[in-house]
């Protein structure tokens, strides 16, 4: 039986791309970046006034500002933030502990190694807009601090002209060293290029709207970034035993992110497929975020019936979705069968929303098929694996010099070859026409 589409998207992938990175968005973002690069803080203030109606004396929160804000956040919210951040921290620490530094003596006197060195300055962007994403503070800042990043600058926009207290609490408790009430392209650009009041960073992490995503794309190379972000995606693989109401609920839980979220069901059961569609239609009548979720479902929702789970996993790998939820009798099977996904959510006791909000894995994940070649944000993204080498034996250095000379001359790199020749001459006594005695001083040591 071939795959049967009971519901197909009405907008193709190219259209998604054009929505997110249109020429108009690109040009607008470029103009803002160029202006901030040229005029610094005055340009930042101009765009904050224009886009957010926000122009305080200082965008940076003082210690007393933060203390006052923290006092206004309900105790239960603080407790929940601390609990979620504890989960994120535990998992990030376990990830870091799985990484090893090494030093290997590949032959007598020749040592090769690597160290995991934290990025020194990181910028974390915490979105506001229609949703104040507290969880993004946990994912970006806590993880950076676990990696050992000494300086984390965090920016978040005002919401309707007001400071988002709970978001600030999350940023502060996560360990941000400086907190700015600043949003959009102006925040990303200021962190990337640096101004008189905002420290230049080496790496920027965190999700955002199309303008923020485009700013990160344009600035990549000048700074590192976590991922090229696209709309949130969810894909469910379900067998005949899956509950259609659960499928529908979990599809809509992600569709509410925005009007362009792909929400896909691949199932082996026609009955599960039809009932899921019916439940989605009914749930949209009562969902407070139905305007967004319904638009995504209408334009980007898909329901596919396949012959068996092997074909379901194969098709799911083609999509390479950001979030893949497995609602099958044996969900752990997907760990073996599937290869392309941002994150797996196994079994009906698990849901994508847990990953988004509280369970402890990172919710900054690859979209638009990028799961074929990269994973999501994790503690390792904030670490640079840097190699080193040292030759402590005269004979070993001389022999490497001979090998280097031969290898380099095959490639016509005479300068490289002569660096090797010099060591061969110094430590083995090998003669070379271009080396004359007295041309160098030797202390008799390799280093």
TrEMBL record:
Quickly give the catalysed reaction. Answer: L-histidinol + 2 NAD(+) + H2O = L-histidine + 2 NADH + 3 H(+)
Active site location: 322-323
According to the UniProt entry, what is the EC number of this protein?
1.1.1.23
List the PROSITE patterns. Answer: HISOL_DEHYDROGENASE
Superkingdom of origin: Eukaryota
What would be one Gene Ontology cellular-component term for the protein?
Answer: cytosol
| UniProt cross-references to Gene3D superfamilies, sorted A to Z | 1.20.5.1300, Nitrogenase molybdenum iron protein domain
Q: Where does NAD(+) bind?
A: 125, 186, 209
Tell me, in a sentence or two, what this protein's role is.
Answer: Catalyzes the sequential NAD-dependent oxidations of L-histidinol to L-histidinaldehyde and then to L-histidine.
Q: What is this protein called?
A: Histidinol dehydrogenase
